[in-house]
């Protein structure tokens, strides 16, 4: 790491996950950097918010200079907070972006995701979720499909697991030799529906963020698949990394009691999933309830509060990095 930039990088909320793996938190979402020391290449996993590009480039320059351009970008899925900077970075770096086949419609302009579920419960992030972008974006000039065999380009020690539910083509990444799991949003380590938990980064292993999860049966199967890996370290799209036996107990408890612990009682997709195929969304269940004026006002206030917090976080990062 270049010593001249250590101070600004530290202030940008970066953290070490395991040897050769680093994370960067921007506001409420994480991106990850994986180094292939043998080939002297690195991979970016996810691309954060639209404002995250400069922070990603700054940390990459500090970690990998002079090899500051990655070999590729790998997307766990295409929700707005994981692809915000992907087009800017792919164009600037001129690198491929890899994703699962079932995620392709939302990354090539073919289909928007199923609507967010403000009735999923858990906190204000769910209430304001209809204001979040639901796509699609179009990065078809850069997108490439992941191999069918579970291998990951440029990462021979890793494999990916298709973990649908939160999104149709969601994937998680696993390094077998030390059992490091980059879960994406298949599970997360904070209560992402709660603004308070997001701000405080309260550490707890939970199911995928409720407001964007459109197939809860698939999500349950995905969590069981991840628990079967018996990971030693879990790093997710939201929250801080968790390690060790206590984490595994929480993961198995979540897998075994998924409906009680993760599935909303009255959410739009709680009893009936959205239906998707390789072309995008083909069916969406009816909304469970109409938004009343009181709920609309509360949502508006929540949007303003969340926006103010995000602006503050952005200004804080800029001041600390200067």
Automatic annotation (TrEMBL):
Domain of life: Bacteria
One GO molecular-function entry: hydrolase activity
Keywords: Hydrolase, Membrane, Transmembrane, Transmembrane helix
Family annotation (InterPro entries): Metallo-B-lactamas (IPR001279), NDM-1-like (IPR050855), RibonucZ/Hydroxyglut_hydro (IPR036866)
Domain Metallo-beta-lactamase: 28-238
Pfam families xref list: Lactamase_B
Segments traversing the membrane: 291-312
Presence of the UniProt keyword Transmembrane helix in the record: yes
Name of the protein in its database record: MBL fold metallo-hydrolase
Organism: Niastella caeni
């Amino acid at each position: 790491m270049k010593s001249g930039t250590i101070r600004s990088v530290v202030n940008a909320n970066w953290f070490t996950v395991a040897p050769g793996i680093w994370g960067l938190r921007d506001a409420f979402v994480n991106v990850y950097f994986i180094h292939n020391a043998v080939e002297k290449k690195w991979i970016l996993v996810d691309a954060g918010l639209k404002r995250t590009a400069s922070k990603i480039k700054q940390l990459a320059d500090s970690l990998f200079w002079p090899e500051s351009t990655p070999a590729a970008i790998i997307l766990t899925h295409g929700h707005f907070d994981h692809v915000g900077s992907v087009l800017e970075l792919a164009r600037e770096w001129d690198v491929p972006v890899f994703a699962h086949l079932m995620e392709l419609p939302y990354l090539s302009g073919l289909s928007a995701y199923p609507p967010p579920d403000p009735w999923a419960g858990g906190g204000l992030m769910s209430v304001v979720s209809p204001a979040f972008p639901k796509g699609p974006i179009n990065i078809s000039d850069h997108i490439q499909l992941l191999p069918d065999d579970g291998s990951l380009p440029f990462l021979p020690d890793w494999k990916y697991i298709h973990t649908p539910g939160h999104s149709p083509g969601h994937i998680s990444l696993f390094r077998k030799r030390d059992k490091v799991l980059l879960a994406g949003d298949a599970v997360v380590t904070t209560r992402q529906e709660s603004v308070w938990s997001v701000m405080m980064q309260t550490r707890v292993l939970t199911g995928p963020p409720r407001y964007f999860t459109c197939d809860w049966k698939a999500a349950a199967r995905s969590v069981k698949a991840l628990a079967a890996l018996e990971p030693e370290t879990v790093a997710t799209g939201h929250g801080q990394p968790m390690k060790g036996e206590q984490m595994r107990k929480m993961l198995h408890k979540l897998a075994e009691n998924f409906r009680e612990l993760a599935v909303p009682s009255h959410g739009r997709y709680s009893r009936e999933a959205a239906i998707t195929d390789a072309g995008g969304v083909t069916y969406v269940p009816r909304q469970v309830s109409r938004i009343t004026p009181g709920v609309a006002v509360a949502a508006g206030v929540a949007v303003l509060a969340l926006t103010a917090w995000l602006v503050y976080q952005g200004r804080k990062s800029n001041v600390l990095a200067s």
